[in-house]
Specification:
484 residues, alpha+beta, Beta-Lactamase, 5-stranded antiparallel sheet, 50% helix, binds adenosine-5'-triphosphate, binds magnesium ion
C-alpha cells in the first residue's frame, strides 16, 4: 500500500508539540521536525535536531535494522512497532519504541514517526529477567527438590527433582503432586497436614514417606511454605530432602551406641563382681589363715622357756608382723570393695569413705547424709560410690584443699550427691578436656543410669561436683543381670 496522505502541517505541529509521545518527520533521512518530547529524551535542542541525519542518533548496533526498516517502509511493506536504541547527546543509551508511516510533506515523500521512550520499562524488565535467572540458579543450586504448587498442581520444579525423585522438572509441570507419594491416602494426609498448618503459620515441616519415579520408596524431610501472607489459592512451595540414608545411618549409630552402653554396663558389672569375689577371698582365706597363724604364735610364745630372751623377742616381732599383715589384708579387701556398701548401703559406705579419706589425707571431710532410707539398685549404689571415690581422689591429687563437704540428699525421685572442696578450683578447660578420663568416666557412669553430672569450679574458691540420678529404674541394658 503505497500512498501518501495530505498533511495539515499546522494542525499536526500543534498536536505534536503537546504530545507525550515523540513525533518527528524525516525527509531524505534528515529530521525536518522533532517535537519537544523527542528533544527531551534525545537531549538535543530543536535547532540541533533539524537537518540532523536520523541514523546518527541511532545506536551503532541497531543501525542496520533501522535502515532495513526504513527501506521496507518506503516500499510500503507493513510492519509492527519495533524497538531500538539511541545514543543521547550526553552519550547515554535509551530504548525507543517506534512506528512509522509514509506521508507527503511539503510536496515530497517523507516519513512520519511516532516514538516512545521505553528505557525504564525495558530496564525494569531486564532487572526482572536477571532476578528470575538468579532465582532459578539459586533454586538449582539447592540439593533438595523444590517445587511450586497451585492447588496441588506443579507450576514449578527445580533440577534437583531429578536427583531426588527421578522426574525431569518439565515432566511435572501441570501434573498433580500425587506423583511424589506412595498412595492416595498418603497424598491426602500430607495435603491435610500442610493446608491446616499453613492456615496458621508460614512454614511447616515433617518427615514423610515418598515414592520415586522408579517405584522406590524414600523417606523425605518435607518442608512447605505458603506464598504470601495467607494461604490464598493454595499456592505453596515445598522442598523435599531425601533422608532415607541419613535416617538409616542414625538408626545404626543409635544401635551401636546402645550396644556400647550395654557393653560398658556389662564390663562394670563384671569388674565389680570380680572385685567383690577377690575382696571376699582375700578377706576370708588370707584373713582367717593369718588369724590362725597369730593364735598359733601366741600359743608357741606362751610355751617358750622364760630364759630364752632372743626367742621371746623374735616371737613378739612375728606377732606384730602378723597384726600389720592382717590389717593390710583388711585394708586391701575393703579398698577393692567396701563390704559396707553391700551390707549397710550407700550412705554408710560414703560416711566410712569420707572418714577414711580424712584420716589418710589430713583434709577435713564432713559428710551429711540426708537422703534417709532408700532402696537403691546394687549397681546404682556402686556407681555412685565409685563416682564419690573418684571425686575424693581428684581432691587429694589436684585441689590442694583443706576442707571437703559431702552431701547425700534426695530431690523427689532423684538421689543427689554433692562434693565440694575449698581448693584451687577446676577450670572450664579441664572439665571439657577430652583427655580428662576420670571426669569422663564419672559422667558416663551417671549417664548409664539416666542421670547427670555437673562440675563447676571457681578459681581459688574450690570445686563442686554434683551427681543427680533417678532412683527407681531397672539397670540399664541388663535388667536380669543387675538383679542377681
Ligand atoms: N577437685 C579438683 N580441684 C581442682 N582441679 C581438679 C579437681 N578435680 C579435677 N581437677 C582437674 O581436672 C583434671 C581432670 O580430672 P580427671 O579426674 O579427669 O583426670 P586426672 O585425675 O588428672 O587423671 P585420672 O584419669 O587418673 O583421673 C585434673 O587433671 C585436674 O587438673
Ligand atoms: Mg581423676
Amino acid at each position: 500500500m503505497s500512498h501518501s496522505r495530505p498533511f495539515d502541517e499546522d494542525l499536526y505541529r500543534t498536536l505534536a508539540n503537546s504530545s507525550q509521545a515523540g513525533v518527528y518527520i524525516l525527509q531524505d533521512g534528515k529530521f525536518q521536525f522533532a517535537n519537544p518530547h523527542i528533544q527531551e529524551y534525545a537531549g538535543y535542542a530543536e535547532k540541533a535536531m533539524l537537518g540532523m541525519d536520523s541514523i546518527s542518533l541511532i545506536h551503532p548496533v541497531d543501525r542496520m535494522s533501522a535502515r532495513r526498516n526504513a527501506v521496507r517502509m518506503l516500499k510500503g511493506q507493513r510492519f509492527s512497532p519495533y524497538e531500538f536504541r539511541i545514543i543521547t547527546s550526553d552519550g547515554r543509551t535509551k530504548w525507543i519504541l517506534e512506528t512509522v508511516t509514509s506521508i507527503s510533506y511539503r510536496g515530497r515523500r517523507a516519513v512520519l514517526g511516532n516514538s516512545m521512550n521505553i528505557t525504564e520499562q525495558k530496564e525494569a524488565r531486564n532487572r526482572l529477567e536477571e532476578l528470575e535467572a538468579l532465582e532459578s540458579s539459586i533454586l538449582d543450586a539447592i540439593p533438595h527438590a523444590v517445587i511450586g504448587l497451585h492447588n496441588r498442581i506443579f507450576n514449578f520444579a527445580n533440577n534437583a527433582v531429578k536427583a531426588v525423585f527421578g522426574w525431569r522438572p518439565e515432566e511435572l509441570i501441570g501434573k498433580s503432586v500425587r506423583l511424589l507419594y506412595r498412595r492416595d491416602e498418603d497424598y491426602e494426609e500430607i495435603a491435610r497436614l500442610f493446608y491446616t498448618a499453613l492456615e496458621k503459620q508460614r512454614t511447616f515441616s515433617t518427615k514423610f514417606p515418598c515414592r520415586r519415579r522408579d517405584g522406590v520408596d524414600i523417606l523425605c524431610m518435607v518442608r512447605a511454605s505458603r506464598i504470601g501472607e495467607t494461604l490464598r489459592e493454595r499456592r505453596i512451595v515445598v522442598t523435599y530432602e531425601d533422608i532415607t540414608e541419613r535416617t538409616q545411618a542414625e538408626r545404626e549409630l543409635e544401635a551401636s551406641r546402645e550396644e556400647l552402653r550395654n557393653l560398658s554396663v556389662h564390663q562394670q558389672t563384671v569388674r565389680e563382681e570380680e572385685r567383690t569375689r577377690i575382696a571376699r577371698e582375700i578377706h576370708d582365706e588370707l584373713g582367717q589363715s593369718l588369724t590362725a597363724l597369730k593364735m598359733d604364735l601366741s600359743w608357741l610364745k606362751n610355751r617358750l622357756p622364760p630364759a630364752l630372751k632372743p626367742l621371746h623377742l623374735k616371737a613378739r616381732q612375728m606377732e606384730q608382723l602378723a597384726d600389720t599383715t592382717i590389717e593390710a589384708v583388711r585394708r586391701i579387701s575393703t579398698e577393692l570393695r567396701p563390704g559396707l556398701l553391700d551390707d549397710l548401703g550407700l550412705a554408710a559406705a560414703i560416711e566410712w569413705q569420707a572418714e577414711d579419706f580424712q584420716n589418710r589425707s589430713g583434709i577435713a571431710c564432713e559428710a551429711r547424709l540426708e537422703a534417709g532410707e532408700m532402696e537403691l539398685h546394687r549397681d546404682l549404689a556402686t556407681a555412685l560410690f565409685r563416682i564419690f571415690q573418684e571425686t575424693l581422689t581428684n581432691i587429694a591429687r589436684h585441689a590442694a584443699a583443706s576442707r571437703v563437704g559431702v552431701l547425700l540428699d534426695r530431690d523427689g525421685e532423684r538421689i543427689i550427691l554433692t562434693v565440694t572442696d575449698n581448693g584451687r578450683g577446676i577450670t572450664k578447660k579441664q572439665i571439657d578436656d577430652g583427655q580428662s578420663f576420670g571426669i569422663i568416666g564419672m559422667r558416663e557412669r551417671a549417664h548409664l543410669w539416666g542421670g547427670d553430672l555437673r562440675i563447676s569450679g571457681s578459681r581459688g574458691e574450690g570445686t563442686t561436683v554434683r551427681v543427680s540420678i533417678p532412683m527407681r529404674q531397672p539397670a540399664p541394658g541388663s535388667r536380669e543381670e543387675g538383679q542377681r
